[in-house]
Amino acid sequence: MMPGTIATSSSVGRLVDNVDVFGEPESGEPTRVALDVRACLSFGELLALLLFTTGVNLLWSELDDDDAVRDSVRFAILANDLLVLDELANYASDVYHHMPQVAARPGFPTVDPTYVYCVGQAITRVFGVAA
Predict the structure, then answer these.
(1) Distance, first Cα to last Cα, the chain
(2) CA angle, corner 61, sides to 55 and 64, nearest 5?
(3) Which pLDDT score is estimated for 119?
(4) 2, 8, 9 from 5: Cα distances, Å
(5) Cα–Cα distance between 61 and 68 in angstroms, integer?
(6) How far is CA 35 from CA 32, 40, 67, in A?
(7) Which residues contact 24 (CB under 8 A, 6 or more apart)?
(8) Where are the alpha helices (DSSP H) in 1-131?
(9) Among candidates 100, 125, 120, which has minimal Cα distance to 43?
(10) pLDDT digits over 61-95, tens only?
(11) Residues contacting residue 47 through CB under 8 Å, at least 6 positions apart
(12) What distances in angstroms separate CA 112 from CA 14, 52, 115, 117, one per listed residue?
């Protein structure tokens, strides 16, 4: 007798039609599978996602909008290289804590420390995690 494995069926999510990658209605889009992905992110990682992701441009006024912050993080997770995130998270945290050596780091983008602080406050308010 050959050894075998009995596979049980499982659902990967519901099929949805005519929606973009975030589930918003958009005609002509292919059928997609709805997935719930769990990610455990630190304060620094959230900060880096919101500060350095191309296409995430939270306006000052949007930092007061919890839904805008959540949506931006959701987009940033999909649009980012999570392997690079660790280094960016350390840099973002240093900027948040006003570390003087941060300005001297070559190859990293410069960001307004006041904006970084406000993004950090939004992260704490929305996600309940602090620096």
Answers:
(1) 58
(2) 100
(3) 96
(4) 10, 9, 13
(5) 10
(6) 9, 16, 20
(7) none
(8) 43-52, 66-79, 82-96, 113-127
(9) 120
(10) 999 999 999 999 999 998 988 888 888 998 899 88
(11) 89, 92, 93, 96, 116, 119, 120, 123, 131
(12) 42, 12, 5, 9
How many Å apart are CA 26 and CA 41, to the nearest integer?
30
Distance between CA atoms of 80 and 52, rounded to whole angstroms? Answer: 9
Predicted structure pTM score? 0.77
Would you tell me how many other CB atoms lie within 10 Å of the CB of residue 127?
Answer: 15
Q: How far is CA 90 from CA 52, 70, 85, in A?
A: 12, 21, 9
The structure tokens listed for 82 are: 């999570």
Q: What average pLDDT values come out for the chain (131 residues) when binned by 10 residues?
A: 46 71 81 79 95 92 95 91 87 84 71 91 95 85
Structure tokens at 47: 């900060």
